[in-house]
Amino acid sequence: MAFLYSLVSGINKADKSLIYIAAIMMCSYTFSDLLPILNNIYLDWILYDLLTITILIAAIFTSYVLTSTASNYIILGLFVNACLTIAIYYDLYVLNNIDEWWLWSVYSIGVNVIDLLMIAVLFINKDFLGLIELKRFIFNRSVLQQNQIDH
């Protein structure tokens, strides 16, 4: 749905970045459902999230996709999803935990909320959580501190 919206709304725009990002996300989610690679669904999801991040970063470096709010949110969302999935995989299959605890709720709610946020950012392409401003604040602050140390 987000891909079709991006396609229709961006058809006459010079910057097709949102269309490419939405297409990459659509392919990733479609392939992860239809083409299992490993013997465990959680490992498949981790692999597809990391592969999607790699493809998005490659698209940014090759200038097919411009760095934007959407690309930042999508990469961060996929990274957090992968981390949550690694944690739940480790809990279920390495530790063999069968007792429900707070991590399971964090995983269930977190992955779904992050997926919704990634879809929303494809529609609006705005920094509605202030993450880009936070990133600028952190990096500008570290640059200022580094300049003070150098002088």
From TrEMBL:
Keywords: Membrane, Transmembrane, Transmembrane helix. It comes from the Bacteria. The chain crosses the membrane at residues 18-39, 45-66, 73-90, 102-124. This is Membrane protein. The lineage of its organism: Bacteria, Pseudomonadati, Pseudomonadota, Gammaproteobacteria, Alteromonadales.
